[in-house]
Amino acid sequence: MGVSFLKKIIHLGLPARLALISLIFLTLAACSDSKNIKTQPESPTGDTKGKTQEVRMAVEDWKLPIQVPEGEFYKVFGWLDDSKLIFVSNLQSGSNLYSYSLEKGESSLILQTDHPIAEVSLNYDRTMILVHTSSSSYEAIVNIYDLKGDIVSGQSFPSTELHAEWNPYKNDTALIVAFQDDWSFRAYQMDTSDKTVEEVLISEPFVEWIGENKLAYLDWNDESPSFFAPLAIQEIGGSKETVKLDHIYRIESYKDYLLTVQASGTDLEKAVFTFYDKKFNEVNSLELPHLSSFSGWLVPYMDFIEDKQRFTVFEPLKSGEADTYTEGFTLAVYQVGNETGRDVIMEGIDNQPILSSPSGRAYLYGFRFERILNIESKKIFNLIQE
InterPro entries annotated for this entry (predicted)? Predict the structure, then answer.
């Protein structure tokens, strides 16, 4: 388990978080695990000399499924560009990390590891790859590579679990949080530019970057567990400051925005998703039905393309209990910022992780990102032959 799992429990009080993390770890231990053409505008004089043309293969024509060169497919971990993925296959004693060209249908080996890969994440500008492997139950190894597979930086950390978060404001820096058996933690800042790893003091392990050296988190009261918490910010190594935003149970940070999820009104039948700029001025807000769970509320999977200001989220059809809800979800897209609007991508779809391609014309979809959802045709394709 890595970032994608741990961030789903950020909204819980400490006792509930520890119980849920333990349950997830035990469960994991029991498991094997038509072309599109874009051209530049005509010149005012009608002169087309020097005009460039970019031809992109349609999503419908991508080469699928992926043929894994060696080992057993584990998971897709993201987009290298608009038509290239990175994925991992597991071998008997280690893992392979590949890139895969959806247009050419070709896999290229980036690197091999001696130990199984637990998590992979790309930095903000997709120039470096953080790879988390484990040599034992009490050690985590974090190596950072360039796209050719050459190691840039690396270190091992005593831990039973590890959480890593790239800094979107400093593309060469990542925050590493290493947990021990008793869920105590130590945090480190790994800087690839000077190849240093420095221990840092933070108040809460599940944090979001909102500046080069500033973090945001929910300030849960561990003495009196609650479903809600106020927002707090902290300079790394500094003291915390509480922001006048309360009654929150989930936050997500992007380079220019902070998203909060709150309960609406006294009846708590709606979830309010609010985007703020980094000065905490409200930019946009929307209300959705929400589903209750044993720990509070189910937060649906979502995605945000920041340069297009496009927010995608799975909407329940009505509020209710998550365990008994069977009506399915609507996958909808909202515009954030100056323009507003809502478009439906697909109805009656399962609430599962999604990750948009840079252009937004396709999504990785599924718990292992084993499928692709085409925005134009509204069809879902398998990346792996089952």
Answer: YqgU_beta-prop (IPR048421)
* Rounded Cα–Cα distance for residues 313 and 273 (Å): 10
Reported as a single tens digit per residue, the pLDDT across 146-201 is 999 999 999 999 999 999 999 999 999 999 999 999 989 999 999 999 999 999 99
Closest CA to 96 of 64, 77, 70: 70
* 144 half-sphere exposure, CB direction, 13 A CA radius: 27
Q: Which residues pair with 122 in a beta bridge?
A: 129
Q: Which helix (H) or strand (E) holds 77?
A: strand 72-81
Q: What is the largest CA-CA distance in the chain?
A: 72
Burial of 167 (0-12, 13-18, 19+ CB in 10 A): buried
Tokens of 179: 């947990």
For the record, the structure tokens of 97 come out as: 């990390």
> Residue 280: phi, psi to the nearest 5?
65, 30
Residue owning tokens 């609650």: 226
Length of the chain: 386
Dist. CA 207–CA 144, nearest whole Å = 21
Beta strands 291-293 and 258-264 are unpaired
Q: Peptide bond preceding 65: is omega within 30 degrees of 0, i.e. cis? A: yes
User: Are 293 and 300 in contact, with CB atoms under 8 Å apart?
Assistant: no
Residue whose entry in the numeric block shows the structure tokens 């509020």? 319
CB 212 within 8 A of CB 193: no
Strand order in the sheet with 354-356: 354-356, 362-365, 371-374, 379-382
Which H or E element spans position 18? helix 14-29
C-alpha span between 355 and 78 (Å, rounded): 7
What are the backbone angles phi and psi of residue 311, rounded to the nearest 5°?
Answer: -110, 125
pLDDT tens, 263-320?
876 667 899 999 999 899 999 999 999 898 877 789 999 999 998 999 999 999 999 9
